[in-house]
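Please decode residue identities from the backbone states below.
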């Protein structure tokens, strides 16, 4: 499996799952654009780890929920690199709360970042991919988008929205040599899940047949496959990486 010569953009690539994806794509030979929104130090750490391993990477700041920032950032990326071959829509946030207590802002923030961000970034790369008749778009959804979760109606709606979006765009772009797929992680150890109480973590483990939370590298492996030529006939699909939690 080689991604040598490919240009990859990973949104939310600075930490957690995104960082592992950046490192894996770079290890396979891609030049990786590590996106972040607010934490330049984490993004630089990711870039440095890739460079120290002999790979190519650079950090680019933009908010995936803001169309003006995306337009400007992708213009710069295209001016510098000429094209984008692989887009991984990974950036995501949680603003949990029970429905009866959920504020409009909690809903809007999560939908704007987790779903609108996927739409805006996909739109930004699709013209170039259509012209070059090759592209890989990989969207990170969640087990919650398939199974639902009390206290996460906003997050589940956004992640389920990614499923419909992925299938629709896969149909639109298939004839141009572009595949659009998703990876649905279960519970993975990152900043997003680190603060869960021991009690909640143990309850979650009880629902996972494998009995442990996953690692970011488990998601990176699935993304690398979907980005590779081995997956050239796979589109509109989802790989569930969840230790058997949801089948
Ligand atoms: P983390 O909280 O560890 O990292 C989130 C990343 O997204 C950071 O790089 C952050 O950048 C970036 N980000 C957040 N908001 C924006 C924004 N508006 N624009 C650009 N970048 C942004 O999350 P995880 O690694 O845990 O999650 C990654 C993806 O995987 C998410 O989509 C999440 O929903 C999904 N997922 C995670 C699971 C888990 O168990 N961890 C389970 C299922 C799905 P910065 O560093 O600048 O803040």
């Amino acid at each position: 499996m080689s991604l040598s010569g490919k240009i990859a953009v990973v949104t939310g690539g600075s930490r957690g799952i995104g960082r592992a994806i950046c490192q894996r794509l770079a290890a396979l030979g891609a030049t990786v654009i590590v996106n972040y929104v607010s934490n330049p130090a984490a993004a630089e750490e990711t870039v440095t780890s890739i460079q120290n391993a002999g790979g190519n990477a650079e950090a680019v700041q933009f908010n995936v929920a803001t169309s003006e920032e995306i337009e400007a950032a992708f213009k710069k990326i295209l001016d510098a690199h000429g094209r984008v071959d692989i887009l991984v829509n990974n950036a995501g946030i949680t603003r949990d709360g029970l429905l009866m207590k959920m504020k409009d802002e909690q809903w809007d923030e999560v939908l704007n970042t987790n779903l609108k961000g996927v739409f805006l970034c996909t739109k930004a790369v699709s013209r170039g991919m259509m012209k070059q008749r090759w592209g890989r778009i990989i969207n990170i959804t969640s087990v919650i988008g398939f199974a639902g979760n009390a206290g996460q109606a906003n997050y589940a709606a956004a992640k389920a929205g990614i499923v419909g979006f992925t299938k629709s765009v896969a149909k639109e772009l298939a004839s141009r040599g572009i595949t659009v797929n998703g990876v649905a992680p279960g519970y993975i150890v990152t900043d997003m899940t680190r603060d869960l109480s021991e009690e909640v973590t143990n309850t979650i483990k009880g629902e996972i047949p494998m009995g442990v939370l996953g690692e970011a590298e488990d998601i990176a492996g699935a993304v690398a496959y979907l980005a590779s030529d081995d997956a050239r006939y796979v589109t509109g699909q989802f790989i569930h990486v969840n230790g058997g939690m949801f089948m």
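Observation: Residues 167 and 236 are 5 Å apart (CA to CA).
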